[in-house]
Amino acid sequence: MARKQIIVELDDDMVEALDRIAQRESSSRSDLLRRGARAVVLFAEWAEADTNLMDAYKEHPDEAPIVEALAREAAKSQDW
Q1: Are residues 24 and 17 in contact, defined by beta-carbon separation less than 8 angstroms?
Q2: pLDDT at 79 over 60
């Protein structure tokens, strides 16, 4: 996957904390930030899938196939 360089401003304390974690994990600051960005995106996708599932259930509480289909879609969004 192609990568794009971006500029992120962080305060000194955050940079020092990232550097300590990166050293402890034999990683890099950039890798930690990539992992953090992935976590934010994943959480947002899970939250959206959860909301969609709840909305569908509210509209059709007795229609299990719809709820099951949405649950399968929500599970797909967890594939990273």
Answers
A1: no
A2: no
Helix axes 64-76, 29-59, angle to 10 degrees: 170
The Cα–Cα gap between 47 and 57 comes to 15
Sign of the torsion angle spanned by Cα atoms 41, 44, 50, 51: negative
Residues 34 and 65: their CA atoms lie apart, in Å, by 37
Q: Which amino acid type is present at position 51?
A: T
The residue to which tokens 């990568």 are assigned:
3
Structural domains counted in the chain: 1
Q: Does residue 3 form part of some domain?
A: no
User: Whole domain around residue 59: which residue ranges?
Assistant: 12-76
Residue 12 has what pLDDT? 98
